[in-house]
Amino acid sequence: MSTGHLALARRIAGLFAPLPQVEAVALGGSRGGGGVAWDAASDIDIYVYTRGDIPLEVRREIVEASGGATRADLGLAYWGPGDEWYHAPTGIEVDVAYFDAAWMEEQLARVLVRHEASLGYTTSFWHTVRSSIRLHDPRGWFAGFQERAAVAYPEELRRAIVALNHPVLRAVIPAYAHQLEKAAARGDLVSVNHRLAALLASYFDIVFAVNRVPHPGEKRLLQAAVQSCPQLPVGMAVDLAEILETATTDLAGLPGRVDRLLDRLDALLREEGLGA
Fold first, then answer.
1. How far apart are CA 182 and CA 255, in angstroms?
2. Listed residues 149, 179, 213: the one ending a domain
3. Mean per-residue pLDDT pooled into runs of 10, the chain (276 residues)
4. Number of domains the chain is built from
5. Is residue 276 part of a domain?
6. Among 5, 16, 154, 261, whose Cα sits 20 to 30 Å from the Cα of 236?
7. Looking at the structure, do residues 119 and 24 belong to the same domain, yes or no?
């Protein structure tokens, strides 16, 4: 990442550091150690791990002390507590997410201890912890947390992710592929987009699990899979491009393209001894 972005991240972390509620501050996202290259549109993702709520007024003061903002949306709660602003001197977009430290510890225990799968994005918080850069960690809590996260991919978790996500692709009656076929037949473009997004969430959860790679999150998934996963379904990139580029313009051909994508995933699962 650029020195300007890193300097700003460190400055903001330093402003959070004196607060008694703050356990640690880390830099994440593509400008952290996320593994996929950042670009000009990438923001700064700062993760503040807390042991209590930070008052909104204090957070507003931190924005001003960092250099002010041309626009700020503070106190956001749509996807969890957070603040976002455009740094006035540089124009850099800053995204601060607040994670309760105990809650994040539970997210790691869910996957690394209990091996519990989700429908899509099962290991994304594990990736968040593993790939972040420590900016403030006075008691060493985050260092220890990252050490606990730096473990091999549990085989039980790998199999649990496949076991939960694979049937909903097309094996059960309400599977995403079946819902897509119905939506395409009805010409229901909104439903096509909705069900295709759900199908791809489970599809990528399986692909990353097969390769024992923690899920990198929502952005640039195809690029991340190609870069980090040595075992991919044959023709995956081409199949995905055809599905996404023609999903709403060739509804009659959509079920066949989805079946081809899933047939090739099934072939990979058989090769890996994971059923299908």
1. 9
2. 149
3. 84 97 90 50 89 98 97 96 97 97 98 98 97 97 97 98 98 97 97 97 98 94 96 97 95 97 98 87
4. 2
5. no
6. 154
7. yes
